[in-house]
Amino acid sequence: MNPSCIMSAGDIEFLLYDWLNVERLTDRERFADHSRETFDQVLRLCQDLATTYFAPHNRDNDLHEPTFDGERVSIIPAVGKALKAFADSGMVGAAMDYEIGGMQLPHSVYTACMSWFHAANVGTASYVLLTTGNANLLAAHGSPEQIDTYVRPMLEGRNFGTMALSEPQAGSSLADITTRAVPAGDGSYRVFGHKMWISGGDHELSENIVHLVLARIPGAPEGTRGISLFIVPKFLPDADGNPTVRNDVALSGINHKMGWRGTVNTAPVFGDGNFTPGGEPGAVGYLVGEPNQGLAQMFTMMNEARIGVGLASTALGYTGYLKSLEYARSRPQGRPVAARGGAQVPIIEHPDVRRMLLAQKSYAEGALALQLYCGTLVDEQRTAATESERARAGTLLRILTPIAKSWPSQWCLAANDLAIQIHGGAGYTRDYDVEQHYRDNRLNPIHEGTHGIQSMDLLGRQVTLDSGAALAALLDTMAASIGRARGTGDPELAGFADALEAATARLAGTTAGLWRDGNPEAALANSAVYLEAFGHVVLAWIWLEQAVTAHGLPARDAQHRDREAFLRGKRLAARYFFRWELPRTTPQFDLLDSGDRTTLELDESWF
Q1: Which residues form the Acyl-CoA dehydrogenase/oxidase N-terminal domain (predicted)?
Q2: pLDDT score for 561
Q3: Using 50, 70 and 90 to split pLDDT, how confident is the model at 555?
Q4: Neighbouring residues of 186: CB distance < 8 A, sequence distance ≥ 6
Q5: What is the band of 558 on the pLDDT scale with cuts at 50, 70, 90?
Q6: How far apart are CA 7 and CA 115, in angstroms?
Q7: pLDDT number for residue 330
Q8: How far apart are CA 149 and CA 157, in angstroms?
Q9: Helix, strand or coil for residue 599?
Q10: CA 447 from chain center: how many Å?
Q11: Is residue 530 part of a domain?
Q12: Three-state SS across 349-372?
């Protein structure tokens, strides 16, 4: 097993190869140039890059956050060096098409690769998350000219990208944005408006910054139906994509966050006349695709970012777990209850510390498994043999996306809380990384849509679309896992299967009951509780899958001389989740089934 306290190479290997069998993907045309050997080489490369270039400045990123003097943003030099090393390795476009400079790596493997960088330094890694998401959106919806001008330089590390959605008065309510884009008469537009909370919105880490901006064209329909998407570069590019004159994009300031401090977070202003490209004010923008299709296009990046935030949450919880595990093994304090005198023992020998470590293990390893499973769904959606298989993968990915974003944001944050607790008083000091990991992770329940927003998407849209087809597909998938667990003949796995079957029945019944009256206000009133219960059922399924996989593997083989401890750890973590965590859903389903209207009947004057 890999002793790194950043991520676990051994767990990644187990998940990718033993459970998900990603080697099978190399039989498909898109991945035919790859093999287990190339996957391992890329994974080792990312481990080395994360260890050498990202992890060393994680603390400096936190202590010396970006500054803005009214004209330029300053960021510690180590960030630029790390991002250059990342770009030089070819990893920006690792999962993208050969024809635009990518490696066509399976998304599942790419997800595992990115877990190293988020765990090592989430502040620096977020520039990568934004840039790859921006590039993927333009590759999907941009014109060939836009791809040549903006995407190829992103893959080379010359351009970085952002997503400019939120506005001060609108927040997450995109129907209320007021940024406008006025046709300039030459095929371009002039963009005017203020945005807020834009990560990576200004810096000197790259030659250019490509803003993807949501705005309204005059005469557009109201609400989300009238939103269009524009490319607004910091510098206008020439025919070869090289930056020339400064566009009319400036900052009104930067935001100072409790975590993710290494990622500059900005309040950009478009078209205030700070700069005058072409001799007049207005930020020059270029329409992506057709007018009024901007929100649908932006969901390409938003959904990728939702899962990306889930991966960042997972990685922060995972590295905190590994660091608290190392601390618990090395910190002598106290004696066993039955001991009378004698030397102090490492705190890992105390049952309550083991409880906290086991909880962290179940959250972090479960979340990582979910993220990699979602990665395989992306691969299946793109390359499965039949249209029905591809459609099924897309259906599962859509219903799991709010879970993949929100569950790690809640429970890997809880893992970080436990990591601090295990460190005791030391955990609250800046001498140890775990307090920073907690602050970094606390942003993720808000990033890319709060728990409340994700829960309304899950209950208000995903489980009702096409008469509940997505939920039915997920429940069928879980039922197949239940059958495999029973087929092992192992009594404990059969018990897990029984518990999961009961939980899925409750989930199906509660979902139907919430919509029985067709009242959206009543159905969605407690959607956050529904999201949490749904997520725990999903993670119980994920743990059943891991336990069944561990059951079927030899404890010793030629490649792994002794995996017994690792596999027993998987089984024990699954047992913990089924005994300690899945039972949380019973009172949650009871509350939802009761039709409780406390929050609906509350008048604000009663506070």
Answers
A1: 42-157
A2: 63
A3: confident
A4: none
A5: low
A6: 8
A7: 95
A8: 13
A9: helix
A10: 9
A11: yes
A12: HCHHHHHHHHHHHHHHHHHHHHHH
Give the Cα separation of 303 and 579 in Å (integer): 32
Q: What six digits make up the tokens of 564?
A: 């017994």
Q: Which tokens in the block code for residue 77?
A: 């030099």
- Beta carbons within 10 angstroms of residue 579's beta carbon: 12
Which entry of 65, 380, 448, 532 is annotated as an active-site residue? Answer: 448
267 beta partners: 253
For residue 361, pLDDT beyond 60? yes
- The residue type found at 506 is R
Query: Which letter does DSSP use for residue 23 in this model?
Result: G
**CB atoms closer than 10 angstroms to residue 289:** 16
Amino acid at 587: P
Residue 30: pLDDT over 70: yes
Can you tell me the distance from the alpha carbon of 447 to that of 166, in angstroms, rounded to the nearest whole number? Answer: 12
Q: Cα separation of 445 and 328, whole Å?
A: 28
**Cα dihedral 301→84→437→130 (10° resolution):** -10
Closest CA to 210 of 305, 131, 309, 306: 131
Quote the DSSP letter at residue 557.
-
253 conformational bin, left if phi > 0, alpha if psi -120 to 50, beta if neither: left
**DSSP collapsed to 3 states, 373-440:** HHHHHHHHHHHCCCHHHHHHHHHHHHHHHHHHHHHHHHHHHHHHHHHHHHHHHHHHCCCCCHHHHHHH
Buried b (16+ CB within 10 A) or exposed e, 341-354: eeeeeebbbbeebe
Run of H or E residues at 237? strand 235-237
Q: Is 13 a catalytic residue?
A: no
* Residue in this structure with the two tokens 């973590």, named with its chain if needed: 573
Write b or e for each residue in 16-41: b if 16 or more Cβ atoms lie within 10 A of its Cβ, otherwise e: bebbbebeebbebebbeebeeeebee
Residue 580 belongs to a domain: yes
User: Domain count of the chain?
Assistant: 1
Which range is least confidently modeled, 169-178, 203-212, 221-230?
169-178
Q: Which two tokens stand for residue 303?
A: 């959904």
User: What is the average per-residue pLDDT within 253-257?
Assistant: 95
* Residue given tokens 């404990």 in the structure block: 492
pTM (whole model) above 0.90: yes
User: Is 306 inside any structural domain?
Assistant: no
AA letter at 402: P
Q: Does 458 map to a domain?
A: yes
Is a pLDDT exceeding 50 seen at residue 1?
no
Residue 2: the pLDDT is 39
Q: Where are the beta strands (DSSP E) in 31-155?
A: 67-68, 73-74
Place of tokens 């920006």: 92
Which strand (E) or helix (H) includes residue 124?
Answer: helix 122-141
Q: One-letter amino acid identity for 34?
A: H
Return the residue matching tokens 């390359």: 383
DSSP state of 220: P
Structural domain that includes position 519: 450-601
DSSP string, 270-308: ESSSSS-GGGS-SEEEEE-SSTT-HHHHHHHHHHHHHHH
| Amino acid found at 100 | I
Read off the tokens for 70.
């009214």
